[in-house]
Write a structure and sequence with these properties.
122 residues, alpha+beta, six-stranded mixed beta sheet
C-alpha cells in the first residue's frame, strides 16, 4: 500500500478569513494549500513550498497544529496540518469565512481541518 505524506496549510489573515486556492480554473472546487513531501523533506519545508506563489511565505507565521491519517483513494495519507497567519493579499486564491467555506474538493474534510487547526474542534 502506498503512503502519501502531505503538508496542508490553513492560511488566515488578521480578520480570520481562510485562503483557499483552485488548482484547475475549470474546476469549481476549492482546496486548502498543500504539497506532497518530497523524499527526505521535512514537513515544514513542504508547508513553506505550498505557500510559494500564493502569499509571501517568508512573512508567514507558520506552526504545525496536528497530524492526521486516513486511507484515501491513493493509499494511506498522513497529513501534517499547519496554520499560517499572513499579512496582505494573496497572489492567487481567495479569502473565505472560516465557518462558511465554499464547495471544496474533499468536502467536509477541508472544513473539519480548518476547524481543528483554528481550535474550533468540538
Amino acid at each position: 500500500m502506498d503512503i502519501q505524506l502531505i503538508a496542508s496549510v490553513v492560511v488566515t489573515r488578521e480578520d480570520g478569513r481562510v485562503l483557499l486556492t483552485k488548482y484547475d480554473p475549470e474546476d469549481e472546487r476549492w482546496w486548502l494549500p498543500g504539497a506532497d513531501l518530497e523524499e527526505l523533506e521535512h514537513p515544514d519545508e513542504a508547508a513553506r513550498r505550498a505557500l510559494d506563489g500564493l502569499v509571501d511565505a517568508g512573512a508567514a507565521d507558520l506552526a504545525m497544529r496536528h497530524v492526521d491519517s486516513f486511507r484515501g483513494r491513493r493509499g494511506w495519507h498522513v497529513v501534517f496540518h499547519y496554520h499560517a497567519r499572513v499579512p496582505g493579499d494573496p497572489k492567487k486564491g481567495d479569502w473565505f469565512p472560516a465557518d462558511a467555506l465554499p464547495w471544496t474538493a474533499h468536502r467536509p474534510w477541508e472544513q473539519q481541518s480548518v476547524d481543528r487547526v483554528l481550535g474550533r474542534d468540538p
